[in-house]
Every structure is written in structure tokens, then in C-alpha cells.
Amino acid sequence: MITTTFLLLLISFECWYLTSGQIKLTHPPVYIQHIVANALLFRISGAVLFLIATASFIFNLGLASGIASVIFGLMAAGSLIVVLQPFQYLRIKVVAVLYFSILLLEIFI
User: Fold this and answer.
1) Mean pLDDT across the chain, nearest whole number?
2) Which has the closest alpha carbon to 10: 59, 73, 103, 65?
3) What integer pLDDT is reported at residue 21 of this predicted model?
């Protein structure tokens, strides 16, 4: 459950980052072009995903540790996206493989 919540934080920060207007990509993939073209829709969806992730953390971990986890998770997602997005390492397949690998570790450990 925590892995899925962190994935929601990562996706919400990615939506906010791509629609901010500060990013300049020379040859963006098709999904990034779609996000930039529908900026308002993806800002709202990023906010909704962030609220769902925050509520999930608070529900699972309690109020204080849930808020702390949201802050730490948002810092981690933000640093990953800001550092790796210009190199376009965060593709959908890479994120999916990492997510399912970590989800399997979470389930079996």
C-alpha cells in the first residue's frame, strides 16, 4: 500500500512539474506533449492524486507520521523528477518495472 501511495506522489509531482512552464524539452515524448497541451486538466488531476496519497498516508500511518511521510515522499519524488526528467530516464516502462519490483518486495517481506 505504501508503494502505491509513493507512486501516486510521484505521478502527481510529475504532472505539476510538466505543467509548470519551467521545463524546456527539445524532443518530448507523446505523453508529455499531451500533458503540456492539457495543462489545466493535469494540474487538477495531480492535485487530486496528491490529496488521495495524503489521505492514504494519514489513514495508514496516523496523523503525524502520515504528514511526515507525505513531506519526505514529496521531497524524494521531486528530487527524482527534477534530476532525471531532463535525461528522460523516467519512462513509463521503467517506472512500471520499478513499481512492480518494489511491490513484490513489499508483499513478500
Assistant:
1) 91
2) 73
3) 79
Beta carbons within 10 angstroms of residue 10's beta carbon:
23
Closest CA to 54 of 32, 35, 77: 77
* Cα–Cα distance, 40 to 36 (Å, whole number): 9
Q: Which pLDDT does position 94 carry in this prediction? A: 87
Q: Is the pTM of this model over 0.85?
A: yes
- State the residue for C-alpha cell 512500471: 96
Distance CA 58, CA 1 (A): 12
What does the pLDDT look like over 32-62, one tens digit per residue? 889 989 999 999 999 999 999 999 999 999 9
Q: Give the integer Cα–Cα distance in Å for 78 and 80.
A: 5
Measured CA angle at 90 (ends 70, 74), to 5 deg? 10
- Quote the CA–CA distance of 44 and 1 in Å, as a whole number: 23
Closest to 14 (Cα-Cα) out of 94, 68, 69:
94
